[in-house]
Each structure stands twice: as structure tokens, then as C-alpha cells.
Amino acid sequence: MDIDQVKKVAKLGRLDLTDAELGVMATQLSAILGYVDQLQELNTDNVEPMAHPLPVQNVFRADELRPSLPVGEVLKNAPSRLGDFFAVPAILDAADDASH
Amino acid sequence: MSSPYQIVVGLEVHVQLLTQSKLFCGCSTKFGASPNSQVCPVCLGMPGVLPVMNRKAFDLSLRAALALNLNIASFTKWDRKNYYYPDLPKNFQISQYDLPFSYEGFLEINAASDPKKEYKPKRIGIIRAHLEEDAGKNMHDESGKGGDSKVDLNRTGTPLLEIVSKPELSSPEEAKAYLDEIRLMLREIGVSDCEMQEGSLRCDANVNIHIQHEGELAATPLVEVKNLNSFGSVAKSIAYEAERQYAEFQKDPKNYRIGNFSKTTAGWNDAKGVTVVQRHKEEAADYRYFPEPDLVPVVVSKEEIEAARAAMGELPSQQRKRLQESPFSLSAYDAGVLSAKGRRMVSYYEEVAKEIGDGKQVMNRLSDLVMGTLNERKEEIDQFPITAPKFTDFMKATAKVNQQDRRDVFKHMLENQSDAATAMTALGIKSAADFDEGALRQAVKDAIAANPAALEDFKKGKTAAANRIKGHVMKTQKGAPNDVVQKLLDEELLKA
Ligand SMILES: [Zn+2]
What we know:
The complex is a heterodimer.
Chain A (H helix, E strand, L loop, with lengths): L2 H10 L6 H19 L22 E2 L9 H4 L6 E2 L2 E4 L12
Antiparallel strand pairs in A: 2-3
Chain B lengths: L4 E12 L24 H4 L8 E2 H13 L3 E2 L2 E2 L2 E4 L9 E4 L6 E9 L10 E13 L3 E3 L9 E4 L6 E7 L6 H17 L12 E13 L2 E4 L3 E6 L2 H21 L12 E6 L4 E4 L12 E2 L6 E2 L2 H11 L3 H9 L7 H9 L2 H14 L2 H19 L10 H10 L5 H14 L3 H8 L9 H14 L1 H8 L5 H12 L5 H14 L1
Parallel strand pairs in B: 14-15
Antiparallel strand pairs in B: 1-11, 1-12, 3-7, 4-18, 5-6, 5-17, 7-8, 8-11, 9-10, 12-13, 12-14, 15-16
Helix pairs in contact in B: 2-5, 3-4, 6-7, 8-9, 8-10, 11-12, 13-15, 13-16, 14-15, 15-16
The structure holds zinc ion (ZN).
Zinc ion binds next to helix 1 of chain B.
């Protein structure tokens, strides 16, 4: 994994890394990927793709209301609040609000 | 008026499902509650919480998918779509990526150039529909001073159905017709209330145009228009965007082509009536989808599909076909108008039409009297004081009454909560059955005797003079059947 790839992943993960850290990450992530890559050696021709490690399906709950948290609890860990809202630094690109 | 280009549009529609509780927790989905009052640790994405899927949300999705003629996957799973945004506390949205629960369907829309006058069916392909969770809501500082944005997480986790059409809509009008049909259908089958104002229906439009250019078909780059807040703005933004792309193409026909650009996003500015293309992002969104480990897959049985189909009931498209057949025999256009009013109006119509027999006439009376009145009174048909049996009586009693008298009777019934017979007595309008021919003939004779001048004119060949005599008869015999009076008058004038 090269430095540019690490930079991209760091950006996606909102991590601010120094040049030194980027170098360390490149080495470590390459080692991790190399290790996981060993799985490629297995022949999986006759193995069904697995969507979930547990052999369980169809777990549902009924459409019933449960109490929500008091708003004070909801906002307890918020770094900043405005009334009963979470407050976050101004979002410049408001069009990003649209559905993803 | 032939356009130099062909508009090509695909719509992505998100609708909130009509559940009481959210998709993965028991918090309420009710709109308009005070900020952050419908939030729990699952909504907040706290460590260690476990989402559990709402059965009703899945059933409603299944119902909607069947109504959209989609195939139901026998095996489906959920995935994490990763991105950072303040309205998404987990930093990922639980959605469906490679194995959505439904795929490949279609919706029939009215593609008539003037949908107010005719009905022309067109099938629009649906690529897929999948079930995902909604995000919270951001409110931005409007002062322009760059103050903090406010976040309300009440909407977080509300079940959303995303419906993706094929790029088979060819005009702003078709896009609107598609939305009209989706809304009508999803409301009818109880899946969503589709209120754009409250955000329970949202829509993004993927727009480009095809141009015949130097003997080949050129396609412009794809633009996704967001921030559309009404069906009207969807239509307007498509028309605007198509013109804008055509202007861009004319500036640089060699390079302004779909292969040379990745999809860009544009916001619709409703006040200015323009699309605003976003700064071109250096890299396409990288959502790094991977399977959601906290949710197990869902396998759908044939029985569940049949149950969902049964819960769906009659769809507007099926209804329109049925209304064009015997015993109703409505035109495609009338069937469309009636169907668009919803199931309750259709059953009101059916109840009356089965008694009266003449489906077309019942439709005319409903359009003339009931539909407009409901709009004025902002009332639904099932709250309407003139019930179907009362309206049936009214139609029978006023069958031979002229239009103005009929409207008066209807108005009287409405204002006095009365029935047709009472209203007609009060207004001095007799019902067809109340006239005996002998008395009517006498009234005609009296009228002829009372209008010697008109008789004179008639005898001189001025046949229109007969109308003066007839008017005289109708004044004293309110509600008398027009055709009978005419017949008697013709006979008596010959004798006079
Ligand atoms: Zn919750």
C-alpha cells in the first residue's frame, strides 16, 4: 500500500495523520493486507458466498413503540448544543444534505 | 414543435414507510415532534447497540415491490454504506447494496401530452427497490454569518424505501406523471403517505439529453438534480437542466459527452428556477460498502409473498382497466380521473353506478357535482354528507330534471343535510315520477292559450316561438321531464 492510498483511506476515515504516521501506516496496513491476502491461496470454487457468519435468518421485531431517551440524555455526550439540537460547525455544502 | 434533443430521465424516489416505530429500534417515526425527542442509543449509534429489523417495515416494502411489479429476491441482506455527515451519527447508513430484496419491475404511467384530456399508458422500468434507514435533519444558520448548524436526530432510522427507475422518462411531464402514479399507488396500498412537504417522499432526478449530431446520437454527461421540493419543481428542474445541457453541448459538441465526465450533482434553486451544478468533486464518492454484521439476512417464502400480494388490494392500474369494462364502461380518461381520486371515491362511484346502470352518466354527475364540492369543502368522500345511497336516490329523482334544477337540489341537500325528495319539495321541483301526463298536457294547453302571440309566430313558421311556450310550461311545472313536455307540446301545437 503506497502513501497516496493511505492518504485516501485516512481522508475517508477523517483521520489527520502526520507524514511520519502516514509512513508507519503504509507499512503496517501493507502487512495486514498481505496477511489477509493469504486467503486467496484457498480454492473456493465450490464454496457458497457467505452473507453472515451466523446460520440465522429472519430476525424481526414487531412494530411497537419503546420509550426514547430524555433529550438531556440524548445530548449528554454532544461536544456542543444549541437548545435541544446538536450543534456542529457550519455545513458549507448544504446540497450534500440531499439523500445519499 | 420538434425539439432538437431527446430528454432522458431516471428518478430515484425515497418514501418513508407507514410504521409506528423506526426500522431498527422502538422510537416513534411521528413527524413534527420536538427536536431529539425520538432518539435512543440505537439512533445515536452508541457502541454495543444492536439493530433489530421492524417486521412491518419489511412487509410494507414487500407490498410496494409487488405493486411495482418487481421480482422478489429469495435471499436478501443489508450493508453498511460508509460516509461522514453530521446527520448520521454511526458514520454509516444501513442500506442494501448487491442483494436488494427486489429487482426488475415497472410502473404504468399516463404519458399523454395533455394528461388532463386523455390517458395514454406507458410502462417505466424499475431497476430495483431496497429498504434502508433515513438520516437525521440538519438546519443551517440562515444569517450568513456562518453560525453552527443544528442537528435533529428524530428522523434517524425511519424506514425508507428507495425506488430507482430506469432512464425511461422522456419529458418533465412524464416525470411528474411517474411521481403522481407512485404517490397514488403507495397511498392506496397503505405503504406511505408520500407527503413531499413533510419529507415522506423525496426525489432526485438523473438527467441528460440525446442529440442527433452530424449523423450520430450524442449523449451529454449525466447530472443528478437534488433538493427537489415539489412535483412541480421536479418537472421544472428537468426542463431547465435539459436546456442548460443543450447550451453546453452547442458550445463544445466534441467534448461535452457522457464518457468524458463522471456524474455531477446539481441543486435546484426553486426561487430562481435554476439548477446549480456543484463543484466537480475530485473523486467519486467512495462508500466502502460491506455486509452489516449486526443484521442477519432475510429469506422470503412464497407464502409471505402471497400474503403481501393479498394485503396490496387492487392497484390503480388494475382499477383503471376494470372501470373501462362492463358494467362501468368508462373511457380510459374518465377511469384515470376517477382512479386518481382514490379507492374510497371509486367504491362510492361503484355503489351508485351499480344502482343507476349508466356508468358514464354517474361519472358525469360525480364530476359535475361531487368532486368539485369536495375540493371546496376540503373534505374526503367518506365524510361527505351525501352518501352513495343518497346520491343514488338523487340521481333517480332528478333523472329528467334540467341541469340548473339538479344543481339546486344538490346544493339544497348539502346545505340542509336533506335527501333528494325533501329538497325537491322545498324547491318546488317535481320528480319525474310525480308528473302525470294528463296534468302536464293540460299545463301545455294552458300555456298555448296564454301565449297567443307566440302561437301566431309559430304558425307563421317561426318554430323557435315554441320555446317561449315551453318556457312558460316549465315555469309552472318545475322539474317536469323535458322530453315529455316537448312531445306534448309538439302534439298540442299541431292541434292548436
Ligand atoms: Zn431509536
